[in-house]
Amino acid sequence: MSTSLRIVGLSQNEVVVGCSQGSLVGVLGPHVPELRALELLVVVARTGSIGAAATELGITQQAASSRVRTMESLVGEPLIARSARGSDLTPTGELVVQWAARVLDAARELDAGISAVRADRRGHLDIAASLTIAEHLLPGWLVGLRAQQVQRGLEPTDITMTATNTARVVALVEAGDVALGFVEGPDAPRRLRHRLVGTDELVVVVGPAHPWAARSRRRLSAATLASTPLVVREAGSGTRTVLERALAGLPAPAPALELSSTAAVRAAVAAGAGPAALGAHAVRDDLATGRLVRVTVSGLDLTRRLHAVWKGGPQPPEGPARELIAWAARRPT
């Protein structure tokens, strides 16, 4: 007598199946063979030989025989009858093959779906990065990653990048809007997985007409810096967080200006708005041309750490995200 089954409910660990005789709890029992073993049995049914099936599946005959024995132990009855002519299925084996065919079809559908997800992950990657990293480091990393992919014969990944401050990068990663973020600051975000990819330091700069630029040694104390109105980035910026952490405990006036981009801060300092602390990468060209002047601050640690951040497991997402992190970590900052 055949029985019609339908799924009538789901829970975290169970599938409740409705049938003519009531509801069955669809937790897999201890007698279900592994997919590879079922696949072997189906091929044996088609070829009539364990040896031929082993060859087709790329395993040894010893391994194939071991899988058959394991299946027979789970089912509790012989599945294959061996003879001089080859291997024939027993009635129970024929029944298991009928069931296995449907299971394997479902497994192939699942495999195709997973493959599509993986292909999409490799084909496109959304990332976000704090401004210093986005403007001065990430372009080189992306060029290097693309060259590496081409060298390996892979289609280059289409990457969309959002440049914003560190707090916003963390929010985008936490919300799942991007798969990977790069942030700067004294510490890594606690709520995300992270990996150190480099370090950077803030340097204090002034315009060439500022009184500090005329000092013979261009050196001042941390207290002097803290007591001076500065041109700063907006709250949530990794640059500002590092500066505020370094000057914590020292009396400080309100900022001279608060601006939302590194480029705006550089322009304001050059125009004489006041000193600022900016990443060394961001002011390298300005220092070389004399547009800005570096001032040394005694007894102040302005080192900041650059981290890749992501959600999920301890390892970065497989594919281009993991490859980009590995590439960045190998490059000197």
Automatic annotation (TrEMBL):
<dbReference type="InterPro" id="IPR005119">
    <property type="entry name" value="LysR_subst-bd"/>
</dbReference>
<keyword id="KW-0238">DNA-binding</keyword>
<dbReference type="InterPro" id="IPR000847">
    <property type="entry name" value="LysR_HTH_N"/>
</dbReference>
<protein>
    <submittedName>
        <fullName>LysR family transcriptional regulator</fullName>
    </submittedName>
</protein>
<dbReference type="GO" id="GO:0003700">
    <property type="term" value="F:DNA-binding transcription factor activity"/>
</dbReference>
<dbReference type="InterPro" id="IPR036390">
    <property type="entry name" value="WH_DNA-bd_sf"/>
</dbReference>
<comment type="similarity">
    <text>Belongs to the LysR transcriptional regulatory family.</text>
</comment>
<keyword id="KW-0804">Transcription</keyword>
<dbReference type="Pfam" id="PF03466">
    <property type="entry name" value="LysR_substrate"/>
</dbReference>
<dbReference type="GO" id="GO:0000976">
    <property type="term" value="F:transcription cis-regulatory region binding"/>
</dbReference>
<dbReference type="Pfam" id="PF00126">
    <property type="entry name" value="HTH_1"/>
</dbReference>
<keyword id="KW-0805">Transcription regulation</keyword>
<feature type="domain" description="HTH lysR-type">
    <location>
        <begin position="33"/>
        <end position="90"/>
    </location>
</feature>
<dbReference type="InterPro" id="IPR036388">
    <property type="entry name" value="WH-like_DNA-bd_sf"/>
</dbReference>
